[in-house]
Amino acid sequence: MSENNITSAPRDAQWREDLRKKYSAKERTAIQRVKMPELDPDYRVTTFTEEVNQGLTEEQALVEASRCMDCPDPQCVTGCPVNINIPGFIKNIERGDFAAAAVVLKETSALPAVCGRVCPQEKQCESRCIYHKMKKQPVAIGYLERFAADREQQSGTASLPAMAPANGIKVAVVGSGPAGLSFAGDMVKRGFDVTVFEALHEIGGVLKYGIPEFRLPNAVVDVEINTLSQMGVKFEKDCIIGKTLSYNDLHEMGFKGIFVASGAGLPRFMNIPGENLIGVMSSNEYLTRVNLMGAGRPDWDTPVLRGKNVAVIGGGNTAMDSVRTARRMGAERAMVVYRRGEEEMPARVEEVKHAKEEGVEFMTLHNPIEYRGDEKGRVNMMLVQEMELGEPDASGRRSPVPVEGAIKEIPVDLVIVSVGVSPNPLIPNSVDGLEVSRRGTIVVAEDSMKSSLDDLYAGGDIVRGGATVILAMGDGRRAAASMAKALLD
Fold this sequence. Notes:
By secondary structure, the chain is α/β, with parallel strands linked by helices. The chain folds into 3 domains: 14-155, Alpha-helical ferredoxin (Fumarate Reductase Iron-sulfur Protein, Chain B, domain 2, Orthogonal Bundle); 170-265 and 423-488, 3-Layer(bba) Sandwich (FAD/NAD(P)-binding domain), CATH 3.50.50; 267-417, FAD/NAD(P)-binding domain. 34% of the residues lie in helices and 17% in strands. The chain has 19 helices and 15 strands. The chain has helices spanning 14-22, 25-30, 41-44, 58-65, 75-78, 86-94, 98-106, 112-118, 141-155, 178-189, 206-209, 218-231, 247-252, 283-292, 317-328, 349-357, 426-430, 461-464, 469-488; strands at residues 170-174, 193-197, 234-236, 255-260, 266-267, 280-282, 309-313, 333-338, 361-364, 366-373, 379-392, 398-411, 414-417, 421-422, 456-458. The strands form 4 sheets. The protein has a 5-stranded parallel beta sheet with strand order 3-2-1-4-15. A hairpin with a 5-residue loop joins strand 11 (379-392) and strand 12. Helix 6 packs across helix 9 and helix 10 (178-189) packs parallel to helix 19. The protein is globular and about 75 Å long. The protein starts with 13 loop residues before the first helix and ends with a helix. The relative contact order is 0.12.
């Protein structure tokens, strides 16, 4: 047995004993959680492509990894939708074997460098950390995941996960976002012939068009995609399943299974007066123009509306991405308008912190009720209703209630609406016999991600209506396990 094969090494292996001798349990718990180095706020609002979070140094990673208690029953793993062996990769970091740490990550995650940056670890793996019982900060699992993945990328000697022999069975993936890429990675490891069909001209889906490079650089996504290519996954761009190719066409091409991960790219609006004015747009369009199509950058001709007084409506991560992008696009006043309080915001605490540092104003407990425009039809005013919190709604959050007579006029010249998305209707509307919910999502069995059609599985936003990267990846993994069993039995 290789010493580096941590996943199959016994829990009482000699190297684990050596690690335990390095620090006592009391000494480990006395170590303070690492702080992520960040770019200065005044500088970072001037650049689109430099990451705000700069990553851990080797010294920081070694110290933070030493905080892990190597629990006999690690609950952090149960909090991870893709079931990463978290103690396994962290203990490899602690002993300085960064390559082995990356190998452990790749056993279950197709996108470790991505997940280390954008997953809400504080709500998932880190929320289960034993340190919470001690009233201490959890191990920085996400930071360490990013460190291990980045270290491997920087080494230039990235390894591929173990691969089963090719079985000759063709499967198709519709969409190259996190659900599709996770599914593709698991299926190609099982020996399937995998082709991913992407409607856009770039592979990566929401990872490319929806998340700014100051949070997730395209180069990082490209490395992960290149690894999948080396594993044998094939990618077809500019191909719209449901238009360019039909469900029946895929059958004629010999595909025995189809995984639909076409996302939820249909923006929602609030249906209030003035939403058709020039200067009121969706976060989907705004971020796609800037992130994927290079709007606002030198030598790029893609047009995009700019504003000095910009309001972003919503309180999720996409709203934070939009308002922080607006600051980088020259907004002098950038506002987040959210109908609940800050504590109810679904955005990550880190993203809210970064936005505040970058000069973003937060108008919580306010809700737009009307937009007004000038004689040219361009928005120049927003009417907002002051709100207060009432009783909890179905989601458990307290419902916002208007404060009678409390209406404000706010000058704006660009409004970016980020109040949610609806599923892409193309696949649900073009496949006969496919069961679809009233919300337009594909209905699947939760344990298998199988639809009402025997050969069609689905996951991510097209099923959930909206999901985090890691939840979408978890869907992809479950679908892969289920489809592989069905096709191989």
